[in-house]
Design goal:
The structure holds 2 protein chains of 2 kinds.
Chain A (H helix, E strand, L loop, with lengths): L2 E5 L3 H13 L3 E5 L2 H8 L16 E5 L7 H10 L6 E5 L4 H10 L3 E4 L4 H19 L8 E3 L2 E4 L4 E4 L2 E4 L2 H12 L4 E3 H7 L11 H13 L9 E4 L3 E4 L3
Parallel strand pairs in A: 1-2, 1-3, 3-4, 4-5
Antiparallel strand pairs in A: 6-7, 7-8, 8-9, 10-12, 11-12
Helix pairs in contact in A: 2-3, 5-6
Chain B lengths: L1 H9 L4 H25 L11 H65 L4 H30 L9 E4 H15 L7 E4 L5 E4 L1 H17 L7 E7 L5 E7 L33 H11 L3 E5 L7 E7 L12 H4 L1
Parallel strand pairs in B: 2-4
Antiparallel strand pairs in B: 1-3, 4-5, 5-7, 6-7
Helix pairs in contact in B: 1-3, 2-3, 3-4, 5-6, 6-7
The chains are: A alpha/beta, B alpha+beta.
């Protein structure tokens, strides 16, 4: 049974969401303030404390919280090596907030007020997307890109003895490019397939994610050999 | 909401302009000092210095000082503007949150009732939640409207009113709204205390103080409301809580429009930053004063409204009590 952590300080919303999640068959934990959420999601460095607590499949996170805001919570989570998918909920539905949330490391974003069916669909899709990103792309062996090898089952990218951990979104973006190796993938398609966003959304998020992937994959991120930009269209992953 | 948000984007704090201003002041001061050293008459009063040069030196220095004073003034004004913009953008953020949260909750519960088979007792629970959301929405809307309606201008049509009755009614309303036990808010004061004013406005002011007292109380709500008249012909209403209080540094600012302690993204209490602003506007409209006091964080706070023009009990107009 997938387990969801709901971080929401507004009691009414928390109770209503919880009620619906439980009917969908999820196990639900709720936390009402930012500091306790960080304790649960990004415990102090000494020892992986969260091993003791049940593993989470998804975090549904409000932005405006007492103690610590949602953006910071995601950032700290990722820094601490916790790559559980995060769905952010917020009253501020501006494109720049979407970008800030995604750049902080969130996987999806839903402005308040939301439709219940949309929320449930997004939650299902995030749980599913995690499985999809985890399913091996080509056979079960890690995928090779230049000198790097990517293991989509563990979200690990190894290059020259260094192992980097990919976020769900990074893994999905890379997987999309791997599946379409040699072809141009448009930004609109990436926004739609990876971010679940309207393809018209004005955002630099994709470019920023590509930059991050290049830092992992390329010798020189500024003159990429593998992950190429096709000016005005999108991106392409090429063999050497 | 998009328009409001765009407003907030263009009103991002402009601290770098302030930095430029401060830099300019430093340059002007340095220039003044350098000029005074260079242009100083070698020895004032000696033969070498003519009176013309001494006068030029005097006026030169004066102009330099004027320049610096002007710059300082501009930077101060700029600083105030920047602060206001910051508060305004916080306000937009707070109102967005205050409006959207109950709407989101209402929508969620409506959706739930529509899609699910909800047991009757749970259903009653949902209805209660939804009613509270509507209450919250309504109070935010009222706050925004009141802030626009009550200005510092004198009340247009002051009528004799019973301040004690206004306070007691506000207590009743607050207790109902927040579902408080009877002993949570204690009233202390006379049966009647008459002043001239706008009863609706004064009730809003007392309600806002009480709302704050409840909101900033800790687990147990304990509020005292005191009403009294003094020998100088002033009527007072004091609302004291035993809640989270505040540090003295915040006291001078709390009546400012949009002022809220802390940043919005880490909000810990609901609100728009308009409540006390409205209280002050109402009180000023009655030519009165409002004072706040708190011994410090976690030690509660008290707010006192003082209104001039206490009416003698014998001047209590007949039939007014029934009308008030």
């Amino acid at each position: 049974m997938p387990r969801i952590l709901l971080v929401e300080d507004e009691e009414h919303l928390a109770a209503g969401i919880r009620f619906n999640f439980e009917l969908e068959g999820y196990e639900v934990e709720t936390i009402g303030d930012g500091l306790r959420a960080v304790e649960r999601l990004a415990p102090p460095a000494e020892g992986p404390v969260w091993d003791a607590a049940p593993t989470l499949d998804l975090v549904v996170l409000d932005v405006m919280l007492p103690g610590l805001d949602g953006f910071e919570i995601v950032e700290r989570m990722r820094q601490a090596g916790n790559y559980t998918p995060v769905l952010m909920l917020t009253a501020k539905g501006l494109p720049e907030d979407v970008v800030q949330g995604l750049e902080a490391g969130a996987d999806d974003y839903l402005p308040k007020p939301f439709d219940l069916v949309v929320l449930l669909a997004r939650v299902r899709s995030l749980v599913r997307r995690r499985d999809w990103a985890r399913a091996p792309a080509e056979g079960s062996s890690p995928v090779r890109i230049g000198g790097a090898s990517v293991d989509f089952a563990s979200f690990e990218l190894r290059k020259g003895g260094v192992t980097a951990r990919l976020t769900l979104l990074e893994a999905m973006l890379l997987k999309l490019l791997v599946e379409r190796r040699g072809q141009v993938v448009t930004k609109a398609e990436i926004l739609e397939k990876v971010w679940n966003l309207n393809p018209d959304t004005e955002t630099r998020a994709v470019d920023n994610f590509v930059m991050r992937l290049r830092r992992h994959l390329e010798e020189d991120a500024r003159s990429p050999r593998f992950l190429q930009t096709v000016r005005g269209v999108g991106y392409r992953l090429v063999e050497e | 909401m998009t328009d409001l948000s765009q407003l907030s984007r263009s009103r991002r704090p402009k601290w770098h302009y302030v930095a430029v201003g401060v830099g300019l002041i430093v340059v002007a001061v340095a220039l003044t000092v350098a000029w005074q050293i260079l242009a100083a008459p070698e020895s004032v009063g000696s033969q070498a210095v003519g009176p013309v040069r001494a006068i030029a030196y005097f006026f030169g220095s004066l102009l330099f000082l004027l320049l610096i004073a002007g710059l300082v003034l501009i930077v101060i004004l700029l600083l105030r503007e920047v602060r206001l913009n910051e508060r305004q953008s916080n306000f937009v953020s707070a109102v967005t949150h205050e409006l959207k949260t109950p709407v989101a909750s209402l929508k969620l519960y409506l959706d739930t009732l529509e899609y699910r088979d909800v047991a009757p007792e749970k259903r009653a629970d949902f209805y209660r939640t939804m009613r509270q959301d509507i209450e919250r929405l309504n109070s935010t809307i009222n706050n925004v409207l009141n802030a626009a309606m009550y200005t510092d201008r004198p009340v247009a049509d002051p009528r004799p009113l019973d301040l004690a009755r206004v306070a007691r009614h506000a207590i009743e309303l607050t207790a109902t709204r927040h579902q408080l036990p009877k002993e949570a808010i204690r009233y202390e004061g006379p049966v009647g205390l008459w002043v001239a004013g706008d009863p609706q406005a004064l009730e809003t002011a007392v309600l806002n103080l009480l709302d704050n007292a409840v909101k900033y109380s800790k687990d147990r709500v304990e509020i005292e409301v005191e009403v009294w008249g003094d020998a100088d012909g002033q009527a007072h209403v004091k609302v004291r809580d035993h809640g989270i209080g505040m540090s003295r540094t915040h006291l001078p600012f709390i009546f400012t429009r949009f002022y809220r302690i802390g940043t919005e993204v880490r909000r810990s209490r609901t609100g728009t930053g308009l409540g006390l602003f409205i209280v002050r506007a109402v009180v000023k409209g009655h030519r009165g004063t409002i004072t706040a006091d708190s011994p410090g964080p976690d030690r509660g706070s008290s707010f006192t409204i003082s209104l001039p023009g206490l009416l003698e009990p014998d001047r209590e107009p007949e039939g007014e009590a029934a009308r008030a």
